[in-house]
Task: inverse folding
């Protein structure tokens, strides 16, 4: 039995983390963004099919994520044992020894109960088996001489969490302060921080409060939401990885309308993994329920754009016109989704900003403030998308990111989003200048949502 007394109460050091990535350092969250250096040069010859003028094309004609919007190799994104982590889904493992983020350090579960303390047979190479105080089950701890250790090495030469280790208890099963056993206690980075009356605290810092932050009673919604985890990670019937056609077309606060050559009877670009469909439906339902009473603008269903084709191919492949770069929008991992809007007839995919240069040339990104963006509802939606730990990344336009992040911070500091995982680690990313990560272009009319496959697919 390994003692983990050292790390108990260590999670209060979470206060050091900024609550929201600023987009510039989001590579630490999503190491490869959607960028593939090998395809950077494709920018410009964007398949031709749906790269037309999208100014005012209210059916959401999609310019395609043609700027290196790439899925990356999911498994290689995962962190090695011994690495610092926030969520279980970040840690590498195998089917028999799934990765987990143990109090902020990656290790794996053991394939079965340790046959003896420090045994190797239940673990992959470079890890050894011990239990852990206060935890059921057996775990494989990384050997410090086999892996880089972001924690500290104990007397057995195993990598264990140290006082700097922190984790996110919403996506990490073994992550708590030790005091209350359920996380949360002693976790508030704003404890002891006093802000002025017109300021709010986030991540231990004071920010100016937006006087437009939606007010009113927060409705109880959790019990009314569709289940976001109603699928099997182990495959078989109801597998999370199975591609299904988004159905029904309109319900729960979303609208999967025909676009990019689809018709009502032929929505061939609307196939997604079951877990992705469940997640989107859950997040739009949450946004609808929570924000129905917001009086600055009525709630309207959120438009869903390209996903994959039935056989997992890039949308448009059937017509010999794949609308996205190779490696993206395949196998149902990715979905293009409209922004919630104000001052427009509905929430279909459309530009939320001026996107032309002074000379009238389409810039394919926002060149001015996103005046049609409903940042508050978009923030709520993005927050609830973070409830699936397999969320990989959400890419938005460089002019959309800052106001959305500000709205997220404000809502995190209020009761609207208090305690949500996005308040501790956001996977929303963007480029305010072109850093060649693939987000700078073609996201002025939609956000791009991507799930990682996760262990066991
Ligand atoms: Zn996309």
Result:
């Amino acid at each position: 039995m390994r003692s983990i007394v050292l790390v108990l109460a260590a999670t209060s050091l979470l206060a050091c983390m900024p609550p929201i990535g600023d987009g510039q350092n989001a590579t630490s969250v999503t190491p490869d963004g959607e960028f593939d250096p090998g395809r950077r040069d494709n920018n410009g010859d964007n398949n031709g099919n749906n790269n037309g003028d999208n100014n005012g094309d209210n059916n959401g004609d999609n310019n395609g994520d043609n700027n290196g919007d790439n899925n990356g190799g999911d498994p290689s994104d995962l962190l090695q044992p011994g690495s610092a982590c926030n969520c279980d889904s970040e840690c590498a493992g195998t089917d028999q020894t799934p990765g987990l983020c143990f109090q902020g350090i990656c290790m794996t579960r053991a394939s079965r109960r340790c046959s003896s303390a420090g045994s190797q047979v239940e673990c992959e190479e470079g890890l050894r088996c011990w239990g852990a105080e206060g935890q059921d089950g057996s775990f494989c701890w990384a050997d410090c001489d086999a892996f880089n250790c972001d924690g500290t090495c104990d007397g057995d030469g195993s990598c264990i969490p140290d006082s700097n280790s922190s984790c996110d208890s919403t996506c990490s099963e073994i992550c708590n302060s030790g005091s209350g056993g359920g996380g949360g206690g002693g976790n508030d980075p704003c404890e002891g921080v006093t802000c002025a009356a017109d300021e709010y605290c986030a991540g231990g810092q004071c920010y100016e409060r937006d006087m437009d932050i939606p007010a009113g009673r927060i409705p109880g919604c959790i019990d009314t939401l569709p289940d976001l985890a109603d699928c099997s990670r182990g495959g078989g019937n109801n597998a999370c990885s199975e591609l299904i056609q988004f159905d029904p077309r309109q319900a729960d606060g979303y609208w999967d309308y025909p676009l990019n050559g689809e018709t009502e009877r032929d929505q061939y670009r609307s196939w997604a993994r079951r877990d992705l469909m469940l997640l989107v439906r859950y997040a739009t339902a949450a946004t609808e329920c929570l924000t129905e009473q917001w009086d600055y603008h009525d709630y309207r269903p959120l438009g869903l754009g390209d996903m994959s084709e039935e056989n997992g191919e890039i949308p448009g492949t059937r017509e010999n016109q794949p609308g996205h770069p190779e490696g993206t929008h395949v196998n149902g991992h990715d979905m293009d989704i409209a922004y919630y809007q104000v001052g427009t007839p509905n929430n279909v995919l459309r530009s939320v900003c001026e996107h032309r240069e002074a000379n009238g040339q389409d810039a394919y990104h926002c060149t001015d403030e996103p005046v049609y963006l409903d940042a508050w509802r978009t923030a709520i939606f993005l927050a609830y998308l973070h409830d699936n730990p397999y969320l990989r990344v959400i890419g938005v336009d460089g002019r959309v990111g800052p106001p959305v992040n500000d709205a997220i911070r404000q809502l995190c500091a209020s009761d609207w989003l208090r305690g949500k995982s996005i308040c501790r680690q956001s996977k929303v990313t963007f480029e305010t200048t072109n850093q060649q990560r693939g987000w700078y272009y073609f996201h002025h009319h939609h956000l791009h949502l991507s799930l990682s496959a996760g262990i066991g697919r």
Q: What stands out?
A: Residues 274-291 form the longest helix (18 residues).
